[in-house]
Design a protein that fits this description.
Elements: H1 35-40, H2 42-45, H3 47-53, H4 55-73, H5 80-105, H6 113-129, H7 134-158, H8 163-182, E1 187-188, H9 194-201, H10 205-223, H11 225-235, H12 237-242, H13 247-274, E2 276-277, H14 283-296, H15 308-327, H16 332-362
Antiparallel strand pairs: 1-2
Helix pairs in contact: 4-15, 5-10, 5-13, 5-14, 5-15, 6-7, 6-8, 6-13, 6-14, 7-8, 7-13, 9-13, 10-11, 10-15, 11-13, 14-15, 15-16
Length: 363
């Protein structure tokens, strides 16, 4: 005898094997506002929380809005030549920021990156002048930049000197060395050869480098043990050390990355944009612009969180603002004011979004 299912009784306890296939399954009661559909699609239910966790999203949206605004305000803004200027404005800061993010996540900072940016090309040219091929000269220049980061990291970790003080002293030391080496005069950058073409021959080459490094370091930060150890060290250094993470080495490594990227940025910028190496290039302005890009992109100055892609969009945002103001005839002073306001707003938004994210996660 066939058993007919009563949908009002025992739905949860009944075994599926004894259900008569000829009888349709009981309908679930509909709920208001389409929430039933959202529950059946967990991806949709999690979408708001996922968007909130995308720190880069808010900065990217602001960049797009600014591009549209300046584009409508002045037809010259969205031309290919001017977008090339925007890329040139932002690429150097984005490359430095890609390394500086790792330091900030560790709770440290490197104020000397602007001067490493200026010194490295002169080291490269000195090695080339001594008879070494350009490829070897580039490698030596980057090794010297990494050594500067290694020194900063060792002083910071072994002598327990705060990174702010360590790298502030290094900033002035490198500036003096650069002026001595260059005799306080710029020198032409090489413009021939395959390596030079890769470093700066194409109109968008520096932007391509910036995008590639941002994507690479974002993958390292989010998908590798290296990145996990970096975030853990910045979030809770003592706890990370007790868990077996070599926190000293993690921070020293972050110093080396920041310096190496700053040196690479100096070489790229001189070859691609100015076609010369200036001993006063970079400096404090570029260093603070890179730090500002990190903060605007969602990196916490106290460490423990941050994204490389966010820092890239932060650098792009500052570049769009600077170029847009130039086209509209607004003076540089206004840009500095706007930059300061943008940093303050970014800090407030980051704090509030972090609280909201914790609420979403907890709920």
């Amino acid at each position: 005898m066939t058993q007919h299912h009563d949908p009002s009784v025992g739905d949860e306890d009944e075994e599926p094997a004894v259900r008569d296939p000829s009888v349709p399954p009981p309908r679930q009661p509909a709920t208001a506002g389409g929430s039933e559909t959202i529950r059946r699609l967990p991806g949709l239910a999690a979408l708001p929380g996922s968007l909130l966790r995308l720190r880069e999203l808010s900065v990217a949206v602001v960049v797009i809005v600014l591009l549209l605004y300046f584009g409508f305000a002045n037809s010259a803004f969205l031309t290919s030549s001017n977008l090339g200027n925007v890329a040139n404005f932002g690429s150097a800061a984005a490359i430095i920021a890609a390394g500086e993010v790792f330091l900030l996540i560790c709770g440290e900072i490197d104020l000397s990156t602007g001067m490493t940016f200026a010194l490295t090309p002169f080291v490269m040219m000195a090695v080339n002048d001594a008879g070494a091929p350009m490829a070897l000269a580039v490698i030596v220049g980057l090794v010297v930049a990494a050594a500067i980061g290694l020194f900063n990291g060792l002083v910071n970790q072994l002598l327990r000197l705060p990174s702010f003080i360590t790298t502030l002293g290094m900033l002035y030391l490198l500036h003096g060395i650069t002026l001595k080496v260059s005799h306080n005069f710029p020198r032409p950058a090489p413009q021939q050869g395959l390596l030079i073409d890769i470093l700066g021959g194409y109109k968008w080459s520096e932007l391509i480098w910036a995008v590639a490094l941002a994507v690479l370091m974002q993958i390292v930060l989010t998908q590798t043990r290296w990145g996990t150890h970096t975030i853990a060290t910045g979030a809770n250094s003592l706890g990370a050390a007790e868990a077996g993470i070599r926190t000293r080495w993690v921070k020293i490594r972050a110093f080396m990355i920041a310096s190496t990227f700053a040196g690479l940025g100096g070489i790229l910028d001189g070859v691609h944009i100015s076609h010369s190496f200036d001993p006063n290039a970079g400096g404090n302005d570029l260093m603070f612009e890179a730090v500002a890009a990190c903060v605007i992109g969602g990196t916490a100055l106290l460490g423990g969180s941050g994204t490389v892609i966010g820092a890239f969009f932060g650098a792009l945002l500052l570049a769009v603002l600077q170029d847009g103001f130039n086209i509209q005839g607004i003076d540089a002073t206004t840009f500095i004011v706007i930059e300061g306001v943008a940093i303050l707003i970014a800090m407030v938004l980051n704090t509030q979004l972090a609280r909201l994210r914790r609420g979403v996660k907890g709920g």
